[in-house]
UniProtKB/TrEMBL annotation:
One of its GO terms (biological process) is L-cysteine catabolic process. Its EC number is 1.13.11.-. Gene3D superfamilies: Jelly Rolls (2.60.120.10). This is 3-mercaptopropionate dioxygenase. Keywords: Dioxygenase, Iron, Metal-binding, Oxidoreductase, Thioether bond. It is an enzyme of class 1 (oxidoreductase). There is a cross-link at residues 95-157 (3'-(S-cysteinyl)-tyrosine (Cys-Tyr)). GO terms for molecular function: cysteine dioxygenase activity; ferrous iron binding. Pfam families: CDO_I (PF05995). Belongs to the cysteine dioxygenase family. Fe cation binds at residues 89, 91, 141. Coiled coil: none annotated.
């Protein structure tokens, strides 16, 4: 299924990108991550990527917008209101994201129990930044929009959006270090 992609050549290009990712997902983790990173970097350089796409927004929070998905791969645009944040979480699938507009802060955590974690590091990710990880974990993180303007990130996940509601495996409670 291809959703929210504009028309014609854009839909074809999206299908080609997904086919390449789906094919590489059958190989090694390193090969898949390299292809996912290259695909996401290509998407990040397209200033028209979201032209004509009616993005949902959630005041005070973030909204997930499916751009396209097929073959166990889904691509989402996340629209972040100022101050919006995810829970502290890990993923049941591969997770790659890039900052398409604005900046986001990524905070990393270390698990100290089945669902408890402490913060270990954080970094502000600027427009154009791309990261990829496999669910070999622990890869616990939280994403926050620290700014006063809306931010948008593009996420490529290794899950079928028609089977799973999200990429999150476990949410963690934060404990003081």
């Amino acid at each position: 299924m291809v959703a929210a992609v504009r028309t014609g050549s854009d839909e074809s290009r999206a299908a080609d990108l997904l086919a390449t990712l789906s094919h590489s997902a059958r190989g090694s983790s390193d090969a898949y991550l390299a292809t996912a990173r290259a695909t996401l970097q290509a998407l990040m350089t397209r200033p028209d990527l979201l032209d004509g796409v009616a993005l949902k927004r959630r005041p005070g929070g973030y909204a997930r917008n499916l751009l396209f998905g097929r073959g166990g791969i889904s691509v989402w645009a996340m629209v972040w209101s100022p101050g919006a944040s995810t829970s502290v979480h890990d993923h049941h699938c591969s997770c790659c994201f890039g900052v398409w507009k604005g900046a986001i802060r990524e905070v990393w955590f270390r698990p100290i129990g089945p669902a408890e974690a402490v913060a270990t590091a954080d970094a502000t990710r600027m427009q154009g930044y791309v990261a990829c990880m496999m669910p070999t974990g622990p890869n616990l993180h939280q994403i926050v929009n620290p700014g006063t303007e809306e931010a948008i990130s593009i996420h490529v996940y290794g899950f079928d959006h028609e089977v799973h509601a999200s990429s999150v495996r476990t949410e963690y409670r934060v404990l003081a270090a």
